[in-house]
Amino acid sequence: MDCGAIASDEMRALARSTRSQSSGLVSPTDYLRQNELLAALTQGELQRLDSHLELMPMARGQVLYTSGGAARHVYFPTTSIVSMLYTMEDGACSEIAMIGKEGVLGVPVFMGGGSSPSQAIVLRAGYAYRIKAQFFLAEFNRGGPLLQLLLRYTQALMTQISQNAVCNRHHMLDQQLCRFLLLILDRQESNQIILTQELIAAMLGTRREGVTEAAGKLQHEGLIRYSRGHIEVLDWRGLEKHACECYRVVKNEYARLLAQTISRQLVSLETQ
Question: How confident is the model at residue 43, as a pLDDT?
Fold first, then answer.
């Protein structure tokens, strides 16, 4: 049984069950710079991309990339969050990376692979800008600041992927759950997270009973409040303290690699 398909179905069911409370789609702002990578581009680079970027609503559970399928678009999330999953031959799966407003979905496009064995599913409904893969690859091949920015981002993403692998092998499930929740919080404005334990278990590659126990422990310590399909984070700093080192390693690496690029772009803008 395909765990990735189960995760997608679970997300869609969750979206239907919460539709009466909220559509799940956050209204977009009128600026491309809501995505941090687009915000780091020079005015000239952004103008070249502007007319080719489409603002798209992203529904929870929507499959953007399938395993081995050709990537036709590159996505820059603004208010949505996308989960990259890898599914094993026996159907078991695990999240390998999470992408939101800090990044871009479509690394295989500009790195030359064109496809990936992983799949990409919308974890949190919202919006993203998309651009045709062929055009974006041509822009990447022009070189310059866009290429440098995307290479730095790719290194940061590789850090997240490798750190997730280490975390899933060596750290306690409650620590992994803290890391997972914190990564979501970093990519949204709210402290409310709409996810079932079944879905979290699929993302972490573990059993639902283990997630139930871990969530219960965090709730007992006053870090979260949990009811079916809904998590409210009560103590963000407490969650950080309880998380393993993996969360800080990934966050620091993103800041180190991308802050340098953004600062150089700001200097470039000031001197134009």
Answer: 87
